[in-house]
Amino acid sequence: MIPEDLYYSEEHEWVRVDDDVVTIGITDYAQDALGDIVYVELPAVGDVLQEGAVVGELESTKSVSDIFCPVAGEVIARNDALDGGPEVINSDPYGEGWLLKLRVTDDDPTAGLLTAERYTAITSA
């Protein structure tokens, strides 16, 4: 099930908006396609990220996949719990498996993102 209150990128990241802070993770569709996630590489707090840039990696038993930044902003938090337990991304991708929190630099961080309805159409095509 795809949460209705989030926004999505075509690269299968999700974005939760809370004023000028966004939380970013990967979708259930993405974690399922990757398989068991065994390692996560994330940018450091304080890094300034550009929309669309590769900002990290997810390594699974199947492959290594890039993490793309769906919005521009400065990293204000990273989910350090993933260092010791990356498998939480598989079990709870929309909750405890979040990746980053950014302070956004765009006036409308959702401008280039998909609604849940549009994302559902892409993943079920």
TrEMBL record:
Keywords in alphabetical order: Lipoyl
The record's free-text note on cofactor binding: Binds 1 lipoyl cofactor covalently.
UniProt-listed GO biological process terms: glycine decarboxylation via glycine cleavage system; protein lipoylation
CDD domains: GCS_H (cd06848)
Cofactor: (R)-lipoate
Any single GO CC term annotated in Swiss-Prot or TrEMBL for this entry: cytosol
Pfam families in alphabetical order: GCV_H
Record domain Lipoyl-binding: where: 21-103
Role: The glycine cleavage system catalyzes the degradation of glycine. The H protein shuttles the methylamine group of glycine from the P protein to the T protein.
NCBIfam families from the UniProt entry: gcvH, PRK01202.1
Matches recorded under PANTHER family: GLYCINE CLEAVAGE SYSTEM H PROTEIN, GLYCINE CLEAVAGE SYSTEM H PROTEIN-RELATED
Family per similarity comment: Belongs to the GcvH family.
Summary of subunit composition and partner proteins: The glycine cleavage system is composed of four proteins: P, T, L and H.
Protein name as catalogued: Glycine cleavage system H protein
Organism: Aeromicrobium marinum DSM 15272
